[in-house]
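stage 2 :: seqdesign
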C-alpha cells in the first residue's frame, strides 16, 4: 500500500534590497538584533536610532570566523527561548558575513523557521553574503558544511557602515565585486578598471551593480542547481589555499583573489581566455592591494585537497573558468594533466 503526499509548492520568497542610507523601520513584533562587540561598539547606537519594535533585544556574539559554530547558534536560540520569541518574531543580522550567515541559520531553525532581515556592515557581506539566502555555520569537518537556504525578508545596505572597515577587509570585499564583474558583466569590469572605489558615489554604484548581478543569478537559480555555482569563481582554488594556510594567512576574499588568478591561468591554458584579459584581472586585483601570487609547497597535496570542496565529487573537480571577461563556464571536465600543469606553474621552483 502507498500513501501519497501532494506537496507541489508555489512559494513567493521575493524581497527588496535597499542600497541607501538606512531608513527608519518599525517592526510590529518582537525583534532580536544579532551582532558582535566590534560592530556594536561602532554602530549599534546608530542602528537603534533607526529601528523600533514591539520589544527589542540585542544578542552579542564573539567576533571571528572561529565562532561561526554551534555554540554561537545555541547562544542565539537560547536567548530567543528566554525572551519567549514566537513564530512571528524577527531577527536582524547586523554585521559581516559571519553574523549574517549565523543569524539566517538560527532564523531558519528556530521553531522551524522565522523571518530575518539583513543589515550587512562589511563590503563582502553587502555585495555577496547578505543576498541570496545561503545561511549556515562551520563544524570540525569544514566551512559552511551545515546550513539552510533561508531568504531574508529584506536587505538594507548602507555604505556608511563601510567608513569604519579596516583596509584589508575592504579589499577582501573588492575581490567579490571583481568576481561578479569577470563572471557576468564586462561593462561593470571596465567601470571598475577606471573607477576609484574610495569615492562614496562610485562605491555605491559598484555595490549596486554587484548586488544586481547577484540578484539576477539567485533569481535564476536559487538553490545552485547550475548557474549560481559560477559565483564560486576563484573559490575552488581559494578554498584549498585557505585550508593549506589554516585560515590564518589570508582573509577569504584574499584567497579568492589568488584563486581567480589561478583559474584564469587554467582558462588561458585551455584557450578560453586571452593572456591579456588574465593580466587585466590581475591588475585590477592589485589596484586594491589584493594578493595575486602564491607558492604551492606540495602540488600533489593541493590537488587532493580539491576533493574536500562541496562542489566536487569523489572523482571530479568542478572548475569555474572565465570565457574572456564577462562570461564563464562551469566544468568538471578538465583533465588531470591540465590541472597539474597549472598547479606546477605555482609550485616551488
Ligand atoms: P566577518 O563577518 O568576519 O567580518 C570581518 C571583520 O570586520 C570582523 O572582525 C567584523 O567584526 C568586522 N566588521 C564588520 N563590520 C564592520 C564595520 N562596519 N567596521 C569595522 N569592522 C567591521 O567577515 P566577512 O568578510 O564580512 O564575511 C565572511 C563570511 O561570510 C564567511 O563566513 C563566509 O563563509 C561568509 N559568506 C557567505 C556568503 C553567502 O552567500 N551566505 C557569501 C560569501 C561569504
Ligand atoms: N557566495 C556564493 C553564493 O551565494 O552562491
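stage 2 :: out
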Amino acid at each position: 500500500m502507498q500513501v501519497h503526499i501532494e506537496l507541489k509548492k508555489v512559494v513567493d520568497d521575493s524581497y527588496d534590497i535597499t542600497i541607501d542610507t538606512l531608513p527608519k523601520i518599525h517592526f510590529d513584533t518582537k525583534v532580536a538584533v544579532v551582532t558582535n562587540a566590534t560592530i556594536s561598539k561602532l554602530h549599534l547606537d546608530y542602528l537603534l536610532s533607526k529601528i523600533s519594535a514591539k520589544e527589542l533585544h540585542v544578542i552579542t556574539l564573539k567576533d571571528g570566523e572561529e565562532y561561526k559554530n554551534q555554540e554561537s547558534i545555541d547562544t542565539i536560540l537560547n536567548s530567543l527561548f528566554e525572551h519567549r520569541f514566537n513564530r512571528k518574531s524577527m531577527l536582524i543580522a547586523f554585521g559581516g558575513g559571519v553574523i549574517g550567515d549565523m543569524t539566517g541559520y538560527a532564523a531558519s531553525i528556530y521553531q522551524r523557521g522565522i523571518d530575518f532581515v539583513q543589515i550587512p556592515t562589511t563590503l563582502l557581506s553587502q555585495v555577496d553574503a547578505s543576498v541570496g539566502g545561503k545561511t549556515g555555520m562551520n563544524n570540525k569537518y569544514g566551512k559552511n558544511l551545515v546550513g539552510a537556504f533561508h531568504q531574508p525578508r529584506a536587505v538594507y545596505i548602507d555604505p556608511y557602515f563601510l567608513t569604519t572597515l579596516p583596509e584589508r577587509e575592504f579589499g577582501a570585499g573588492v575581490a567579490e565585486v571583481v568576481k561578479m564583474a569577470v563572471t557576468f558583466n564586462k561593462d561593470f569590469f571596465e567601470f571598475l578598471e577606471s573607477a576609484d572605489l574610495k569615492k562614496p558615489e562610485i562605491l555605491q554604484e559598484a555595490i549596486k551593480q554587484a548586488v544586481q548581478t547577484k540578484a539576477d543569478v539567485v533569481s535564476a537559480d536559487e538553490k545552485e542547481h547550475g548557474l549560481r555555482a559560477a559565483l564560486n569563481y576563484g573559490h575552488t582554488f581559494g578554498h584549498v589555499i585557505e585550508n593549506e594556510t589554516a585560515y590564518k594567512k589570508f582573509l577569504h576574499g584574499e584567497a579568492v583573489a589568488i584563486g581567480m588568478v589561478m583559474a584564469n591561468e587554467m582558462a588561458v591554458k585551455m584557450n578560453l581566455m586571452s593572456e591579456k584579459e588574465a593580466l587585466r584581472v590581475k591588475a585590477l586585483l592589485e589596484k586594491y592591494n589584493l594578493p595575486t601570487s602564491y607558492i604551492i609547497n606540495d602540488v600533489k597535496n593541493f590537488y587532493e585537497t580539491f576533493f574536500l570542496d562541496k562542489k566536487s565529487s569523489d572523482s571530479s573537480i568542478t572548475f569555474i573558468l572565465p570565457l574572456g571577461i564577462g562570461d564563464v563556464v562551469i566544468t568538471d571536465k578538465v583533465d588531470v594533466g591540465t590541472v597539474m600543469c597549472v598547479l606546477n606553474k605555482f609550485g616551488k621552483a
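stage 3 :: structure notes
- The pocket of nicotinamide-adenine-dinucleotide (ligand 1) is lined by residues 36, 38-39, 42, 63, 65, 68, 95-99, 101, 121-122, 124-125, 128-129, 132, 134, 143-144, 161, 164-165, 169, 172, 252 (CB under 6 Å).
- The two ends are 67 Å apart (CA to CA).
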